[in-house]
């Protein structure tokens, strides 16, 4: 790279950092908080803490139907949709309620926690109305819905350029030992520069993964287009309809029994219960080999009136693009290897704040030094 090209790239890195550094730090810091957001939310709300006698709900637990009865007593909208989470742990039953007028990913919903036996409502709050959900909306959508998602996603791609330009500008032309050194006794401006470069160098690879996967999660259409262009079109998730549009809905227990017969090796993750109409039950399951425990990518669709299996979406049978998709979320949230990588993700999420602060202070000190040189007539 020529000296002129390096100077130009340094300017690109500087102005991208000044323009996006604050946003980068905000998204990374909120991401750090969200790595353990379930655990933090439980700690903040003792009412949903598990008790010693609480059962762990599975495929055959009667509490699912009891919770649905309780839900429809408190929220009687016949066209409202419910989603019950099977956490695999003892304690309250988390659920989401989508009223009949709710449509789309950003639709208003109520988060509800039922007692372990499903007979009582322990807590109910609108999504975004309590701390951890507010942080999630800030991290994913900047509290601005679809427009916020677009800003987060496209800014993420710009942040990738910021990261790459920083490494290219730093890349040593001489001694690697000198390039990786931190001079403790140097002048403050040099120490700031060393802190900035070393934080960036040692975290760059992991930050690239976090930022890249975050941008793809924020822009699902772009993700699908990129995968289609580079690998293949991801296998579409089926969208079957029940054989009738009205009738008596079967119990959850019957829908789960049908789903379990279809995928006996699966672990139950979510039960999506439709309101009145043609939509089927959607049972979200984790198949062997699926890396994400909480949001796995396989589904079984059950006719809500007849109990027939309408479709099965098994990520194990998907193409290379579908396989790639199932790894994006676990790479982004740090759950890929359990507790150790989640802790690493928390630490890594604080690095952009350090990069922004050290980069900004270094830039200000350089401006001050130049101003002083102009004043004194001393130029270097």
Automatic annotation (TrEMBL):
Protein name: PepSY domain-containing protein
InterPro entries: PepSY-ass_TM
Keywords: Membrane, Transmembrane, Transmembrane helix
Pfam family, one: PepSY_TM
Transmembrane regions: 12-38, 151-171, 198-219, 343-363
Natural source organism: Sphingomonas hengshuiensis
